[in-house]
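User: Round two. Same drill as before: sequence, then structure, for each protein.

Assistant: Same drill it is. First protein:
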Amino acid sequence: MAQNPAKRHLSMDSSEGWTTLVGETDIEKDEFSFLWTVKHFSVVSQLGSSFESPVFHGGSNFNHAWQMKICRKKDVQDIDYLSLHLRLVDCGKGRPCHSKTEVVKANYQFAIVDANGQPTYIRGETPGATLKVLKFKLKSGLGWGYHKFITSADLIKPELKLVVDDTLTIRCQIWICGGLKQKLGNSSDDTNSNIPVRKRMAREKVAMDIGKLLRESIGTDVTIQTKERVLKAHKAILMARSPVFATMFNVNMLEKQLNVVKIVDFDDDVVEAMLQHVYTGETMLMAERAEELLKIAEKYDMTGLKEDCEYQLADSLNLENVATILVLAHAHNAPYLKQKTVYFITLNKEKLLKSPTFREAMEAQTDTSLFMEILFSQH
């Protein structure tokens, strides 16, 4: 009988006399944060129409010099606003500017730090694959920023806790893009560029292996009873991923005695999707069942699942669902989702006030103050 020829594998090394060169193109980058604390803000803000932060340097690669500026101004409706801008002062010791027309490519994000130390009134982009690159020039007066960053009335509202003990704290995050980096080497070289790929592949392999325990019910020691299904799971994994499950199995509760957890207040698919996320960090039902998954994540205190749901729902905001998602975010303590939803509403006030769907959703709420405060605020 004829034997099948041995399979040939594509070789990326020089075992057959060839040397494969590999190249990599990346970009130099730097990022840092600066906290600007303005003490006796009520007095400082009355000393002139504008005031500036100290000049600050940041980042280990470029060390440019930056400065923030606050201006007080009124619009045509005589509403008092604070504008906030970031400007380039000089190019620092690491990369001197040769002329006033030289450009530094960067982006930024402003936020006010509230009484709880949390950033709020966030304006600007979060770094990511689609981060927009802005051009800062020395000759530019104000640089980049927001002419209507916040109204003076909102800034001093006691319930917002933005000015604490007459002190205002502003956080500025800056992401700087430099020139292109080129790297050349052999495919067999164990270069640093391969490390992130290997780490990602290793994480995916771990998730696949742990997920196999759930899919094939290997070594399970607890039963999850839904409305119509019986799912097998592992106490240790549930306890590691959820403080609520940890409490169930650590104290003398019925679940610990019977090794059974009943979850009948959610659809079977939602419970199974929750378990998939517990074991692998993702679920295929995220796009279509994010609202229910957010609720079950809140019930069992699963922060990773909850954050994924918030991002999914924030990306899906539109004029038809924004009212429902605002109520959901408010009821289930989802701060990121609520912030994004409020911002979407403020940008689309006129359209939403004319929308029957939005008005019906608003009127269906027993407490309409959540909507009314946003719709009729001045920012």
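Second protein:
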Amino acid sequence: MSSVMEDATDTLSKYSWIDLVFSVMGVCTFLIDWGSDVWVATEFYCRGDFFWFGVLVGLMVLSSLVVQMFSWFWLKYDRELPGFGAQSGAGTVLFGDKVNISCLLHLLQLGFLFRHISAIRQGFRVWWRKEGSEYAVYLIHDLSMLRLIETFCESAPQLTLMIYVMLSNNKAKTVQLVSIAASVTSIAWMVVDYHRSLRSFLPDKAKQGWGSALIYFLWNLLLIAPRVATLALFASVLPWFIALHFLVLWFVFVLWVWQQKTEFMDSTSGEWLYRATVGLIWYFSWFNVSDGRTRARSFIYHSFITLDGGILLVTWWLYRDPFQSESYALALIITLPLTYFLGLFFKAMYYCYFHPKLWRPPVRESRIAFDMPDTQVSFRDISTQDGVPSFQLLNKRMASHATNFYLDQRANRNNDGTNGEEVSHL
């Protein structure tokens, strides 16, 4: 029993120089994306485009507020865990036990940045002193989730806005191209980073191939890109209806998340923040939030988005300016649907040939390998040496998403003789 748990938890606690590189690149990507946002906002303001300036600043502020709220919620949850301070050491996130300073940083919208700095600091500590590996891994898992949230709260909407402005003006400025490039880079990096963070919960992390990561990256890019472009095209002909379109779909998605009874956060207010954020993510891309029959949920989602995208494209085609859009209209009306279907093809290919699965063992064994306490972050008792318990620091926030993404339960006989449910996570 102990050897099984040691093998699983040893995998989770490994921290390599690649993890440190990813942390540094995460900071660079965050600063470049933030700098490009400020540049674009300044350009809008200097040209007198106060409306677009307000929209862009609004997206930046909304994204920052959401990310800081998640960061602060998690910081509060972690501090309430017995022994967390001892396990994380003196270099805990955001000045250790100085709660007032941590709160001030979040109010100043700097909490996310200082989490990056803490992760890099802890990474150097592991590299030079060979200690604190578990806590370093714990930090990068939280950052991966926060980057995912920041990407779909800011980068994806901003990318839609930039394409819309280009279509409306029928010309592209250098600052807009830079902003689009920064947003695409941010989304692409998030996809790779999030995929890598999920894979770290697998026992065969070291065996992860570049082919799997590439296919995962491609199907996400090929599904998100045409979705963003379609929304921008629709907004270019009916700009006021895009807000109504978003609010209606977001409300429906939030209700769907609520219906799935998610338990990602440790408080009711935090859980509703999570559900609202997932509703925003689903406006652009599928994101699995619970276990069970996810193949059916994924099929429903993609069918709905395909139908919605088709309606948006047809509406744009009917209301577009035929002279202004003559050079690209036919190419877009053909390319965007084909790109989306190609993304679905790559997604099916990934799940058929590249997607590893965690096989749920019989109930008695699953209590050893996979069951987790109700808290979102947990310590697991691995062994006792010299009368002193040894703990494993496990980030259950990301572990729950990894389980939803990778777990595959084949039909098996329960104690009452009934067949178990087959779970597939497409």
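The longest strand covers residues 378-385.

User: Perfect.
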